[in-house]
Amino acid sequence: MKFERWFTRVTDKFDFFLFRSVLGLLVLLIVTQVVMSNENVRYFLSVVDQREGASLDDYELDRPVVSPTDQTISDEEYYLLLEAEAEVGLTELKVIVDEDKVYNFEDNQVEIRVRKGNMVEIDGSSYDFPIRVTVREASQDIIPAMSQAMVITYGTVELLGWVITD
Question: Residue 30 in contact with residue 124, Cβ under 8 Å?
Fold first, then answer.
């Protein structure tokens, strides 16, 4: 009988402590969420916000971004030598330039003619395995981001990039 009374008393105290702890943590969670919704306070409480860096709006104001809309298509032609990495011949792998010109790979390579502002896509929709396509060579005037581009297609059409020149 003594043990039962002792056990009841201890479990009642533990139940009371557990209920108060859960209730306190719930209130603390709600208060924290309300406080973190304020940007000025969140900056001092959250390490992530301190290390996050400049917002995108500030970044765009300080540094203009080179985009394909800044480029106009010119008459001057450039070349890109593309190479596909696969164990089999890729006769159905295609390169699409501005959604109309189509080039086919021969011996897993293709040389294409492009102009400034062209969009280059790789159509691997005929294959159900990943194919890695890289730019092996490019005209000197094409910016390094395009002359070193790489894309992996897995049965999809993937954007390789836009032709942007210096």
Answer: no
Find, among 65, 66, 76, the residue nearest to 139 by Cα.
76
Tokens at 157, concatenated: 């059409």
Q: Which residues contact 159 (CB under 8 A, 6 or more apart)?
A: 119, 120, 121, 151
CA distances from 108 to 2, 47, 103, 132, 145 (A): 86, 49, 12, 11, 22
* Structure confidence by residue, pLDDT tens digits, 138-148: 888 888 777 78
- Number of Cβ within a 10 Å radius of residue 127: 18
Q: What is the mean pLDDT of residues 8-37?
A: 93
CATH architecture, domain 68-162: Sandwich (2.60)
- Mean local confidence (pLDDT), 108-133: 88
How far is 47 from 49, CA to CA, in rounded Å?
Answer: 6
Instruction: Report the pLDDT averaged over residues 6-17.
Output: 92
42: Cβ contacts below 8 Å, ≥ 6 apart? 35, 36, 49
* Chain position carrying tokens 């992530």: 48
